[in-house]
């Protein structure tokens, strides 16, 4: 599936995940440049640059600890980068110039332009599925309750949870809870969706249902940056795959280029190790 295929489809309801009307289609919606994040002596991200165009799905792969999650968290300012620049549509932030950085309400507004879904879904345990989806709308966006309820019900239907609106998280499987978390992110009409290893905490048999929801969003034209170890998903859905190692982008290309004929030896080693791992676990499962 390419960005062209997807943009030919109807716009997805509520995937406010997309460009402003009249935006220049050649200009990336999100531009990350020389992004750096250090924790004391640890340089988690060391000069990462990439673009994300509207409607594009960019998948970031790489070994554990290479800085994928930190990169995502820097993009929506859950972590404050140590250096570099970030541009989302018309808003440019230069982390070497503090005056360009948002704070207070402005920071909250900037963050709300991204919908982030985490490995741990962190739903409110005492609230129902629909209340979990509504809460950002009613509290942050001040959407009237009735409208928030209607929109949240539609979003739950969209992630395949019709009829489960009134269940509490403990009455839902991990895969269903993660789909509530995706609906919750969509409820804020984000421009870009960030997925951080969202299937890693799930039992293997529940992974597919969450990936299907993500594939639907991609098909509907959502702009997505996805950190994942699901290589088949990356191959099928990504417009572009970025391979990171040791805090840096090592290689970037279409899914076919990068996954079938990687140019860099580090990418080849990672993918070979990954394929060996899946064959070994398939062998174990086979007896
Ligand atoms: P990945 O998502 O690729 O597994 P991370 O972005 O989580 O990698 O981590 C990159 C590096 O930064 C790792 O060495 C990790 O230990 C370090 N790191 C991440 N978060 C913190 C933190 N809050 N404090 C100190 N070091 C951190």
What's the count of strands? 10
Computed CA radius of gyration, to the nearest angstrom: 19 Å
* Order of strands, widest sheet: 6-7-8-3-9-10
Could you tell me how far the N terminus lies from the C terminus, measured between alpha carbons in angstroms? 35 Å
Poorly predicted segments: 1-15
**Ligands:** adenosine-5'-diphosphate
Bulk shape = globular
What does the main sheet amount to?
A: 6 strands, mixed
Q: What is the string of SSEs from the N terminus onward?
A: HEEEHEEHEHHHEHEHEEHH
Tell me the fraction of residues in β-strands, as a range.
15-25%
Mean pLDDT over the full residue set: 89
Helicity range: 25-40%
Q: Can you give a write-up of this model?
A:
The protein is α/β, with parallel strands linked by helices. It has ten helices and ten strands. Strands 6-7-8-3-9-10 form a six-stranded mixed β-sheet, sandwiched between helices. The protein has a four-stranded antiparallel β-sheet with strand order 2-1-4-5, covered by helices on one side. Strand 9 and strand 10 (248-253) form a beta hairpin. The radius of gyration is 19 Å and the shape is globular. Residues 1-15 have low confidence and may be disordered. Bound molecules: adenosine-5'-diphosphate.
Describe the SSE topology.
Blueprint: H1 3-8, E1 30-39, E2 42-52, E3 57-61, H2 68-75, E4 83-88, E5 91-94, H3 104-111, E6 114-117, H4 129-140, H5 145-158, H6 174-186, E7 192-196, H7 204-219, E8 224-227, H8 231-237, E9 240-245, E10 248-253, H9 255-260, H10 265-285
Parallel strand pairs: 3-8, 3-9, 6-7, 7-8
Antiparallel strand pairs: 1-2, 1-4, 4-5, 9-10
Helix pairs in contact: 4-5, 4-6, 5-6, 6-7
This protein binds adenosine-5'-diphosphate (ADP).
């Amino acid at each position: 599936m390419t960005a062209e295929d997807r943009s030919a489809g109807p716009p997805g309801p509520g995937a406010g995940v997309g460009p402003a009307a009249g935006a220049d289609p050649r200009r990336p919606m999100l531009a990350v440049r020389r992004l750096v994040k250090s924790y004391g002596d640890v340089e988690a991200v060391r000069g990462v640059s990439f673009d994300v165009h509207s409607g594009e799905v960019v998948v970031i792969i790489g070994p554990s600890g290479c800085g994928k999650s930190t990169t995502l968290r820097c993009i929506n300012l859950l972590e404050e980068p140590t250096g570099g620049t970030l541009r989302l549509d018309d808003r440019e932030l230069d982390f070497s110039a503090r005056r360009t950085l948002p704070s207070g309400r402005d920071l909250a507004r900037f963050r709300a332009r991204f919908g982030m879904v985490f490995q741990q879904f962190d739903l409110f345990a005492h609230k129902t599925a629909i209340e979990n989806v509504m809460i950002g709308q009613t509290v942050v966006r001040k959407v009237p309750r009735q409208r928030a309820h209607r929109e949240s019900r539609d979003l739950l239907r969209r992630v395949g949870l019709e009829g489960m609106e009134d269940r509490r998280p403990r009455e839902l499987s991990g895969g269903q809870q993660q789909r509530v978390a995706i609906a919750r992110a969509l409820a804020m009409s984000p421009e870009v969706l960030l997925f951080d290893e969202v299937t890693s905490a799930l039992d293997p048999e529940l992974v597919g249902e969450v990936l299907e929801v993500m594939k639907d969003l991609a098909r509907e034209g959502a702009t997505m940056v996805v950190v994942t170890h699901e290589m088949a998903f990356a191959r099928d859905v990504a417009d572009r795959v970025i391979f990171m190692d040791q805090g840096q982008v090592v290689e970037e290309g279409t899914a076919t280029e990068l996954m079938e004929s990687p140019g860099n030896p580090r990418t080849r080693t990672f993918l070979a190790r990954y394929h060996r791992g899946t064959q070994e676990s398939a062998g174990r499962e086979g007896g």
